[in-house]
Amino acid sequence: MSLHHRTRAGFRLAAVAVPTSLLLTACLPGQGHIGLEASGHFTAEQKFPTALITWCGDSPPTQIDLVAEDHQWRLTATEELTGGEVGVDLSAPGERWEITDGEGGAVYRVVPSSPGTEYTLGVSTETVEAGEEPGNEIAELVFTTSDLAAEEGVYASDPDGGGMVPAGEFPPEC
Questions:
Q1: pLDDT tens digits for the chain (174 residues)?
Q2: Torsion of the alpha carbons at 46, 132, 122 and 118, rounded to the nearest 10
Q3: d(Cα 39, Cα 42) in Å, to the nearest integer?
Q4: How far apart are CA 89 and CA 107, in angstroms?
Q5: Whose CB among 34, 116, 123, 161 lies 3.0–4.6 Å from 138's, allowing a Cys bridge?
């Protein structure tokens, strides 16, 4: 079992203990946070959201991995990010990000398989080659697009395991 799958299995167990139906994981302590814009509208099931990423040190994100059982996308920064936070539209990240699949091939369209598919979104400060496990040392988050259609706000980690927060309350302090 790869490190990624052991980590995902641990997060699934943690998510079951949360009394809500939100599938969410906490960020790694002191490194950063991930929030996903949740519209509370059924159309959120059909596309990936904007990820709100903050980092708490001098090392900005250079790689974002979006992984499901049958899909893997990797976004690699084409320029150094500054300012401690960035918003990335996962469906159309723009020129600041190069998009590849699990084998390293270019990808031009990133769409969810289905509203109930569970995705792990990981953010790293270092890039790794295709096929290698990412570090995800800034933060990692598990979600489904149906979760993002259920409520409005930011789908974000918190000390109690995670939940929906008003947009004005994200990001939390480092």
A1: 444 444 444 433 333 333 333 333 343 444 889 999 998 889 889 999 999 999 988 899 999 999 999 899 999 999 999 999 999 999 999 999 999 998 999 998 889 999 999 999 999 999 998 888 898 888 888 899 998 999 899 998 655 555 788 999 898 877
A2: 40
A3: 8
A4: 15
A5: 123
